[in-house]
Amino acid sequence: MKAFVGRVHELTSLDAVYSAPDGPWVFLVEGPAGIGKSRLLGELSRQVGAREVRVVSVPATEFEESTPLQLIRDILEQFSDADTAALDRDPTGTDARELARMLRRRLGAAPTMLIIDDAHWADAASLRVLALLIRSRPAEATRVVLAYREGQFPALLGHTLRAIGTATFHLPIPPLSPADAAALLPGIASGRRDRLLTASHGNPLYLLLLARLSPAEFDAAVREDDPAAPTADHSALDRTIRAELAHLPPREQLVAQAAAVCGPTADAELLRATAELSRSELTAGIDELARRGWLTVTGGTVTFRHPLIRTAAFRLAGHGWRAEAHARAARTLRAADAPLLTRARHLEHALCGGDELAAADLLRAAEQALATAPATSARWIEAALQAAPNQPDSAGLPVRLLLGRALLLSGAAESARGVLEPLAAQPGPQRTDALLLYARCERILGNVDTARILLATAADRPGATGNGPVQLELAILELQDNRDAEGAARVRALFESEAVREPAIRAAALTLRSMGQLTGLDMTAATTSYRAAEREFAQLTDSQVLDGVHAVSALGWMAYFLDDHRTGIAHIERAIRISRRFGQSFILPELHTVQAYSLAKLGRFEESLAAAEDAAESAELFGYSDVPPLAGTIKLRVLEATSPRAEVLRWWRIVDAMPRPVMRWWRAVVDAALSETAARLGTGAANTAVPQPDRAHPTRPTELAAQAQTAIAQGALDIAGTLVAQAEEAARRLGLPGQLAAAAQARSEYASARGDLDEAATVVQVAIDEFGRAAMPVQRGQALLLAAQLAGRRGDFTRATAAIAAARADFTAAGAFELLVEATAVQRRLAGHQTVSGARELTEREREVADLAACGRTNKEIAAQLYLSPRTVEDHLSRILRKLGLTSRAGIAHRLVELDAASAR
């Protein structure tokens, strides 16, 4: 934890008022528990004490609230023996007025700041002394600081201050800001940190407690509806809060525990019955808990100030008491004919073994909750089976199939598989549903071939119901696994079925058709189908989107490939909101992944990193092993533009150590990114660039362009030329701006390496324009940077300067800090080239290294020939490139020829 975070403004305000000659001498610092009052006062104490001001700082405590004059005794003990030689250390027999006079003399003897923390716990006798003290200021150099919980300023002191009109400085402590949270938790990704900040209400204590939890534990800890949901033990999480609650009087403890069992409610009878108290005892207990800041009463509804307080209060009671309390609540709610879902939450935790009526209620509630809260639904089904194991089918649906569906929708794929596997083998009308759900489990768990077999079995069943969703699921799987022909066949079968009449299935089928057409490079048909699919999805209601939510990620990928990523992001973000609202969280890893890729393409890097983090976290929660490396890959690409080389290399190693995705398409994306990044990092882990057979896919030109750039960097210009030609041909067939731009940039770099600066300058402008059309600002900035270097080499420094300025604007908007560093380096090199000859700057050793690099030797080969370490060779090459005004070794040979010719003249 940082020494002092988030309260600099408040500290500055206190100090400014303290230093003002005519300012108030009574300071009131107000805020809820955990907001940071004590840390602020500690920092103020250190700051004031450094000015040779005596600081007397004491806290009042709840445990000593009933001990008369305990706070005054604590204050007196802070004075030295010389100050109190004539003073009896036990003040209990001394008149309050005399004690006030004694304190006034001691405080006024030297510049003093008296700080009383947690003044709301001060005992009544001490408050009377303090009230007398502040009626007359001890001295001009005396200040009194009173810190207290929100809304709990001692009434006696408040009355005194108002009566005598004493000027005060009131400082409420606000919640932490996002910037404060970033300083407090620098190692946590921004997306997760924002969720933590929201859940903590900006309270630093709660923020730090929540930050220690895993994603699953976090969700359980802040769950407003049920602190009893099964999860890991959070004893460390609420130890601080529970310890304070444990010292409440018995009546207040009972009320707090009953309120924790009942949750937010305006039903006083429910609270009374649950706590087993009279109405007057309940009311008095609520009032006292509200006074202490644990409960709030708004519009008649009683609730805890924060879910963590409720969780701590719930665990304050034993398991037996909680079970009986839930049973009492359930009986009270049933008598009042309360809604089924409200009763079910109590029935789940009540001791109701053998209660068939309770079990039936739980099952009916589970069906109602399935779409919006599948994890809760699964718990209620399991509770029903425990209460009455031989439950009949509910609404024609086998109870265990309902359980399997709920477990899967909640992300518990492993548990769902255990429930569904035997059901999938049983004959009957429910078998198709069981096979579909079982296949989804296997797919999430990485068993793609098993999932394919299960789906094919379901799709080929004669007269099977639900054939449309099965064909849809199977088509998605085949296309993601690069089985294009099989995927196309499934899409055709889908269009031939009656299921395509359903709006969601039709929208999904059109999306998959467009994806198959794109893979086959039928761009006109692919674009037409995509546009139709996009329109269909836009017209769906939220509940209809749920029926086709599996295909929304495919729609997002199509938008990404066709350079329509802004539209794709809108659909993805809608699907994310709907999935969260209706409890379909198992699809979130895929949705967040395509969201991260699309945001990165738009240059919205911070949001992209947050989406990638969301993808990885949700995948971890649901055991979806294919997603973390795919999400990690886009994070790697973003880090290349935003972070130092060491951080990129660290993350490259993390992603490289992850198991590769089982899906062939996803695995190819991960492998390509790792290889390209390794080449740029110079780790030696990159594959040597060689021409690849032309397997059609929508990002083939970019892939070939990256391979060409690797070949150029290695000095393999013949191979690079072949790859550039392939990239241009693939880009022409696609006709997509982003792909045309990637091929054009590779062509420009190749022409530059060959010394044809005119062609390089012409073609790089094509790249700039096409990246602009594709809404890819960072790539456009990189093309502008290349254009600046080319202009500089041609002596057009005005054009070069303008291109660098435009590139910097793109990089700044995206937060591409490393590219900004690169732009600055290019600018400096160009400035140096206006007056300095690079050849004359090379040392003898640098010239030796440059000559060998120009001949195509690798770093390792140069090191062996010159008896140097590879690291030393790398350092020499960095200086050589800087001096020659180059960004890669590809142009070294041509540059040396130019400079030698100039020297000869």
Structure description:
The protein has 905 residues and is mainly alpha-helical. 66% of the residues lie in helices and 4% in strands. It has a five-stranded parallel β-sheet, with helices on both faces. Helix 5 (124-133) links the parallel strand 3 (112-117) and strand 4. Helix 24 (467-480) runs antiparallel to helix 25 (484-496), helix 31 (588-601) packs antiparallel against helix 32 (605-622) and helix 41 packs antiparallel against helix 42 (817-833). The relative contact order is 0.04. Residues 81-88, 686-693 and 835-840 have low confidence and may be disordered.
List the helices and strands and how they pair.
Elements: H1 8-19, E1 26-31, H2 37-49, E2 54-59, H3 70-76, H4 96-108, E3 112-117, H5 124-133, E4 142-149, H6 155-164, E5 168-172, H7 178-184, H8 190-200, H9 204-211, H10 215-221, H11 235-245, H12 250-262, H13 268-275, H14 279-291, E6 295-298, E7 301-304, H15 307-316, H16 319-335, H17 340-349, H18 356-369, H19 374-387, H20 399-409, H21 413-424, H22 431-444, H23 448-459, H24 467-480, H25 484-496, H26 503-519, H27 523-539, H28 542-547, H29 552-561, H30 565-581, H31 588-601, H32 605-622, H33 627-642, H34 645-657, H35 664-681, H36 700-713, H37 717-734, H38 737-753, H39 757-773, H40 777-793, H41 797-814, H42 817-833, H43 838-841, H44 844-854, H45 859-866, H46 870-884, H47 892-904
Parallel strand pairs: 1-4, 1-5, 2-3, 3-4
Antiparallel strand pairs: 6-7
Helix pairs in contact: 1-2, 4-5, 5-6, 8-9, 11-15, 12-13, 12-14, 12-15, 12-16, 13-16, 16-17, 17-18, 17-19, 18-19, 19-20, 20-21, 20-22, 21-22, 22-23, 22-24, 23-24, 24-25, 24-26, 25-26, 26-27, 26-29, 27-29, 29-30, 29-31, 30-31, 31-32, 31-33, 32-33, 33-34, 33-35, 34-35, 35-36, 36-37, 36-38, 37-38, ...
